[in-house]
Amino acid sequence: MDGFPNILLNFANACEDYFEGTGILHCPKIAQDIKYCQSKGKAVVLSMGGASGAYGFSSNKEGADFADVVWNMFFKGESDKRPFDNAVLDGIDLDIEGGAPTGYSAFIKRLRAHYATDPDNKYYIAAAPQCPFPDAYLGSTLNNAWFDMVFVQFYNNYCGVNTYPGWFNFKDWDNWAKNESKNKDVKVFIGRAHNAQNQLRDVISKAMHCVLEPVTGKERMLKTHA
């Protein structure tokens, strides 16, 4: 989802129908898939942002107001235009790769207030920052808002897994999780690009071993996410 504070959804060719007279996708088949995955114990989250497209907030109020829209359209709120009908998502992932940092902390604070009205269900807020630390777009938000997990993009940058042991900067993110994050139990995932070349796979495997070995037995969960 991008284009916010307007709603612009893109699920490739998995959903191409719209609510009549609007630009909002209506995706009943995806709704069925969401329910099926959840019945198997899998959480389903919606990613906001991305590497392309124009999006962002001009003020904290705009961010907070957009959280109301998201709650009503995708969670336990009420709207006559719900893209997934009565399917309820498990969370939101912020993949912010452009624009200004304004409004995201306010968005999360308001969305968490909505989450609190439904204590019987567990909802998540995640982020997918790029590996340069601090992240250019989410750095202040990561320090000021409560995240359950971050999927750090250790690829397409000088600090990627493929640069281990040189510029690979997992230690910066580990330090953030332990000492700067508001949630000291935040989960840190190692995001890496998929590449079928054997040489790169070998480099990644060695890096994963060296990164994961020192944290074995700790409560913090570290995983690779391709």
TrEMBL record:
GO terms for cellular component: extracellular region. The keyword Lipid biosynthesis does not apply. GO terms for biological process: chitin catabolic process; polysaccharide catabolic process. Belongs to the glycosyl hydrolase 18 family. This is chitinase. It comes from the Eukaryota. Residues 1-226 form the GH18 domain. The gene is CHT2_2. It catalyses: Random endo-hydrolysis of N-acetyl-beta-D-glucosaminide (1->4)-beta-linkages in chitin and chitodextrins. The keyword Hydrolase applies. InterPro entries: GH, Glyco_hydro18_cat, Glyco_hydro_18_chit_AS, Glycosyl_Hydrlase18_Chitinase. Keywords: Carbohydrate metabolism, Chitin degradation, Glycosidase, Hydrolase, Polysaccharide degradation. It is an enzyme of class 3 (hydrolase). Its EC number is 3.2.1.14. One of its GO terms (molecular function) is endochitinase activity.
